[in-house]
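Page 37, top half.
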Amino acid sequence: MSDDEKRTFEEIFKQNENKIHYYIHKLQINDTHKEFYVEGLYAMWMAYKKYQPDKGPLSTYFNYMIKNRMIDLIRSKARDEEKTDAYLKQEQIHQDDGNRFGGSELPIVPPTDITISDQTIWEQVQATLTDNQWKWVYYAIIQEMPQKEIAEAEQVSINTVKSWGREARKKLRASGIYSEP
């Protein structure tokens, strides 16, 4: 039985603890939370448990295990950080929708998020418009239908629907109900 096999892990740890610090320094790791130190300690324990004397010296096996476990932890943390960054970027795009109002940095609120629940406003708008212009407001703004579908539903041309929209916007601007940004 060799001398290494007779010694306890605590004795071997005290002799080789500096190897953990050496690899933390060599790999330029900022270990503020001692995660890498604990990983090095665990690697040393696993090396101690799995050590086979016929394969080589224990210190070489410690070096191999500590270094590779720390590199694995660095890679794992980098992957986690990439996933987090990708998620945050996607969430930011979802929040902002990528559209901005004028020269400001304020995001444009998508029309689907704007709801006018006050029925008196819609009644005021309808009173200002002709029947066809109201159809355009109802279908295009409230129902969010494209012009082609409005034309098919009302059995008119797309140009007619565009004309209803132009006239409706003109009347709403004149009445002060609507103003374009």
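Page 37, bottom half:
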Amino acid sequence: MAAHEELGAPEKVSIPASGHKSLVEHLEDEDDTSTYAILMPAEYTMKEGSQLWKGVRLGKFLGAGAQAKVFQLAHDDGSPIGKVIKVNHGDLGSKMLNNNVLWVGMDREWEVGTQLRAALQQPGGQVPGFMKVADCLIAGKNGQEHFSGMLMEELHGFEVYKRIDVPEFHNIHYVREMLFQSFSALDRAQRKVGFHHADLGMRNIMEHYPQIWEQLPAEEGEKAKAKAKQFPGYSCNADGSRLPLGPQLEFKIIDFGIAKFSAKLAAAAAGSEAEEIVERLNEQQRTRMRFGNANSPATIEYEPSDVTKHKGFMARLKNMISPSKSRLTVIIRPVKKLASVKSRRSAGPGGAAAAATDEEAAVAEEGGVVEEAALQAEWEPIRLASFQDAGFKQAADAVAEHHKEAAGSKKKKKKKRKSPIETMYRHFWHRKGDAFHLLLGIALALDDRCWPEEDEDEVAALCSLVHHVTGVKMRVRTAEGEPGSAAFGRHKWQHWFRRWHIRLKGHILPYNSGLLAREALSHPFFTRGDYSGLKHASLPAELPQVFPTE
């Protein structure tokens, strides 16, 4: 019982590392682990090249999906900052898709991404194997405030499926390195937080080149670029596109929209203590997150979604069209004097919003609205730091301090009800883990393909791994020839009929569909005969390791 009571204890206040930095400095700081909420102007129109905040412009439009669109963030001179902004479309279709009662909202991706960052971020700011998720964006006014989007790490590269799922592809070294890095990242996340992506296909893994050719000194860049020779189907596509962008390559898992933290998965991967941490983390994810404090010009209380509050069909139907507004509360406090705001800006634009003193804030007792001219005169948004540590850190500290009490007070937790579509999706993929999901996609893409004869042993090892997990026997052939030969790959018409057989076989009669990433890493495809101990992939991989052409 003591452990259960500890969940309700006051949350520890963390001092943000970037509290006194400007917004641009904060965006460029890769080592900061604090979580921020940024208030967006209500009427702002997302348009490529337009000024967003002071020193920050919307850069190149990178793409759009059903829920959101993505832009690069750039300095005023056009140089990239290293972050991208992902924002909701704002139309009716987007509002319905971003609704946790109907499907899964984009705020879920932000919640999962920030917890992954808290659990896995290394000194220097890297989150190996995962796209790093940073601040959330809040938009709207007059009680209509809502989660609008988030800031994320910018990746330089292509989605894996655009290189592998083409007829001419025949580079087994690329496949091995991609799977090795992906399973290494999954193993770390499974042992830390019981991470289950639930949609880990080749469309949700991206290449990332930490340095691109243009960022290297001229001579060094030309020498390194010369090694990346053009071999269709091996180091590029048939038309010569998608050549390597830099001398080193990482693979990053993206899109955490339907991911979750599973206590059972954590127990299987790392034992009972990891299971307790994940149970506490899931409990804390259902509590309000506060941004800002009494001295800030605004405070935000963000409550994660929980569709159990909407009982009955009509209540759920109504919330599909008009999501509940009680989940997000934005409280704006007044500023007595314009001079006090200007003094805060001179001390550090944008930074005082997270850590202002009582005198600087000049908050009036009777309430009111902040002077818009003061807050927007220099295009600096209100930026508020999270008032508490990340849920993962709180959960880990609580279990470490009260392990005995937590172990002796097992209490059945109330399950969080899911949307109908999410429920059906999870039932379909029940007992099928991320390793199975990814390897089934590999089987669909690489079945009935011709490979270089010199890679015969590694291709056989891949087929063994796929068969061990999915139960699917891949068809392969080998032939002599140099990489890039037209003899390699497969014909389109030969493959279509096999796809349905592979899908049915994998889903109806899988072999080891719940295989952990740690177990997959022990396969000879990755160990290459070295059984001295489990090893993770070294990051980043040198280009000749992924595209060997000599």
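Margin note: The longest helix spans residues 172-193.
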